[in-house]
Amino acid sequence: MSGHRIEKINEEIKKELSYIIPKLKDPRVHEFVTVTDVHTSPDLKTAKVYFTSMKDDEDQVLEGLMRSSGYIRGMLSKTMNLRYTPELTFVYDTSVRYGMHIDSMLADLDLDGSDSNEQQR
Question: Which of 28, 29, 59, 88 has the most Cβ atoms closer than 10 angstroms to its Cβ?
Fold first, then answer.
């Protein structure tokens, strides 16, 4: 299958999941859950859904999403025109937290060099 078509399907699944997930009734899945990426297999049988949560409860959110995966897949099949609706696997995306950590480390650095100029005098 064409790589371009897979990319379009991934984006469409990501968009649809961003509408479906906030409407879940599971209390473990809250409105601060964001789908960051989707990777669908070439045969469209499986899809890895990467998500992040602004709260520090990724284990609970992951459990809630896995328990709701059948419902989410059913809703996805109603909104998308695919022969097969992929089986969803949810994975917590650590890149956002890692990026925030790097950002805070960079903010702590003295980038203007004012301390080093004073030490040289």
Answer: 29
Encode pLDDT of 75-101 as tens digits: 999 999 888 899 999 999 887 777 777
Question: What domains are defined for the chain?
Answer: 3-120 (3.30.300.20)
**Distance (Å, rounded) from C-alpha 16 to C-alpha 19?**
5
Please provide the size of the chain in residues: 121
DSSP string, 67-117: HTHHHHHHHHHHHS--SSPPEEEEEE--HHHHHHHHHHHHHHS--S-HHHH
Judge contact between 120 and 104, C-beta under 8 A: no
Q: Among 89, 64, 96, 113, which Cα is nearest to 13's?
A: 89
* Residue 53 φ/ψ region, left for φ over 0, alpha for ψ in the -120 to 50 degree band, beta for the rest: beta
- Among 68, 59, 60, 84, CA closest to 17: 68
Q: Tell me the pLDDT of the chain averaged across its residues.
A: 85
